[in-house]
Queue: 2 jobs
Job 1
Amino acid sequence: MPSSVLIVDDEPGLRELVRRWLAGPDSFLLEASSAEDAMCVLADTRAVAVALVDLQMPGHGGAWLVEQMQRSFPAVAIVLATADPAVPGTISLQRSVIGYLVKPLDRDQVVQLVAAGLAWHQQKANPAAHGSDTDPVDAFLDSKLTRGRGRGGRRDR
């Protein structure tokens, strides 16, 4: 099964718009209307490469979804979308978050970030083919966001 893009937003019109922008002969697009539905899609599909996630949704919302995805699906690239131009750094700088978009969405920016997410996912899924099994940006963010604790859990202080 080819890699797919999961569009997670509570607004059906926005999901349809993004679907149209990303549609193509090689695209496999999935949708979810909530963070909880997205977790079900991710568990059932297992081939999602990129998730475009709205931060403000009823229920758990996008921040919760990012946390859950990082735990259960760490190779899925995440692109955040929000109507709030001030995205908290703790969310936007996390591992696997490729970038964020401010609504109203711009087609070129969506396509560009999804393409970057697909490339990131390919590197994570097959690190040997890309010359390294550690992404230097991930290593840097991991050391900064975990207050000096590396991936092995050891404290550097």
Job 2
Amino acid sequence: LQGLKDNARKTAITELQSCMNDAASLSMALKQAHWNVKGPNFIAIHELFDAVKARLDPQIDAMAERVQQLDGVAVGTVEEVAKATKLKPYPTDLTKSADHIREISARLREYGARVREAIDTTDEAGDADTADILTAASQQADKDLWFIESHLE
């Protein structure tokens, strides 16, 4: 890419892959919660989890495509994501909506923090375009966290 130093490119690939790992893990956790949630306001929570996932997945795709633009290899298999994500495994024994909301909120908060770190790192390395992609992901994560946490009293 024009004007992008090798260090900026390598840094961006590393940061994007790390964010992708956490985002893919979060995406699968959202689906787990969507499938298994029960309780008051079931349909609202069930549909909210799917809507958040539907907004997250294009962010993952944008990150992966940026990795390719930078001459990297986007890795997104379940096996590799499971090894690399920094998010803790999602519990598979939950059914209560409040429990799912708390667990998803915690992961969304952690993912948002990771993305914000990557924004700073890629910007400092000199790749403003990658920082912009990550900024869009961060803004959406913050908004979705607000939507989900608003269901907690």
